Amino acid sequence: MKLFKTCLNHSLLVIVFLLAGIPVLAQGSFAIRNARIITVTNGTIERGTIVIKDGKITAVGTSAAVPKDAKVIDGSGLSVYPGMIDSNTVVGLTEVSSVPATVDTTELGDFKANMKALTAVNPNSDVIPVSRMNGVTTVLTCPRGGIIAGQCALINLDGWTPEQMKLLAPAGMHFTYPVMGFGGRGGGFGGGFARGPNDQARQQRDRQVESLKNTIEDAIAYMKAREAAAADKSIPARAIDLGLDALIPVIKGQVPVIMSANGEREIKAAVEFAEKYKLKLIINGGDEATKVAKLLKEKNIPVILGSTLDLPNAEDEAYDIAFSRASELQKAGVRFAFSTGDAAYVRLLPYHAGMAAAFGLPKEEALKGVTIYPAQILGVDKLVGSIEVGKIANLVVTDGDILELRTKVKNMFISGRPVDLSNKHTKLYEKFKDRQ
How do residues 236-288 score in pLDDT, each as one tens digit? Predict the structure, then answer.
């Protein structure tokens, strides 16, 4: 009966899509044979087979049986990796950053918990196929601006609608911890003061911190009032407040707070804030996370790293401060994931991990930082992040090490479907390659 209901629900969904004029993404049976399989979590199979059916990985190993109806890809001389995950982007929310009409990352106001990134995702964006070209299959796309920017969505980079692309939404609530000077990367409050923070800057920062605390306390009171009204019908029902309502899963620990904080002071304050209100915290950015690594390890707080390819912020910082940040966190036992923080440069994600590997991070850890670690941090490691039976078939077939610049992606599967690897970059290359 359960199977019948599942099939019926799927059939009804297909009918709804067809009536709405939405194409249904076909899933078939595929097999990749004789390939080097980097499972990430269970070692490397030097010459094995992966079987894909109905969007899932159904078999992995040296003796996996290939179904008769499977389309076979010869993987001789090739490697198969799990699709990479970029843990902080605005993919689908922006097209050309210098053209405001194509940017839908930010709404007015400082507190916008009810804003949903998934609603604004444009599945037809030219940025999406470009983002896929080097092996990224999944991204966390987040709203920007204000103190509470809104709800992030974890999406696969293939689909006709945002719902078809959705892997998890909300995957997190994007906060920015207020900083003095209203600026700094990830601050989102405009420009800073040329001569450093002054009394006015401190007062403004303190007011914003107080506003953030008041908002969370209002949400807690709102949640309790709604629960009391639901339990006792004699209590008048509280009017719906969409902003406070959206914070209830955050307060209950069901949705993590992805807190943009770069400085040592802000990271410590963010940890104290999350501990006070019992919030599930993920630090985003973490420029000075190594200075508080002991605290992050003690509190089991992971870090989504900002750009590893950045140059130092200050002239007295070491040239490799960004390159070696992941290595230092790994040595301290802090969980981390790599991100690009943008839309235009998601295709460079493997090289962020590769650069970290060149500056002290073990290569296996670098690969995990773009696969299983972000999946674990965002709570989807049972779905994606490694090559295991039962997981979604987000797979990348390459002719070499996926973290190296010279490597080319030969095939890609997202949710078990082959993905077209052509994009605006490849089309322009083909158009102009023979021009002189």
Answer: 888 899 999 999 999 999 999 999 999 999 999 999 999 999 999 999 999 99
Asked if 112 contacts 243 with a C-beta cutoff of 8 angstroms, the reply is: yes
Find out whether 283 and 304 touch, Cβ atoms under 8 Å.
yes
Q: Which domains does the chain have, with CATH numbers?
A: 1-82+386-436 (2.30.40.10), 84-384 (3.20.20.140)
Query: Residue 375: which residues within 8 A CB-CB, separation 6 or more?
Result: 85, 381, 383, 384, 385, 386
Predicted confidence at residue 193, as pLDDT, reads 37
Give the number of residues written for the chain: 436
Q: At what angle do helices 199-231 and 242-251 cross, to 10 degrees?
A: 90
Other CB atoms closer than 10 Å to residue 83's CB: what's the count? 27
- pLDDT reading at 5 higher than 60: no
**How many angstroms separate the CA atoms of 301 and 377, rounded?**
9
Q: Which amino acid, residue 332?
A: A
- Contact (CB, 8 A) for 82 and 75: no
Rounded to whole angstroms, the Cα distance separating 87 from 432 reads: 34
Q: What local confidence, expressed as pLDDT, does residue 196 receive?
A: 52
Q: Say how far apart CA 120 and CA 149 lie, in whole Å.
A: 14
Q: pLDDT over 70 for what percent of the chain?
A: 90
What pLDDT, on the 0 to 100 scale, is given for residue 237? 84
Q: List the one residue out of 140, 160, 159 whose CA is nearest residue 150.
A: 140
**Residue 155 parent element (H or E):** strand 148-156
| % of residues, the chain, pLDDT over 90 | 81
* 377 within 8 A of 304, measured Cβ to Cβ: yes
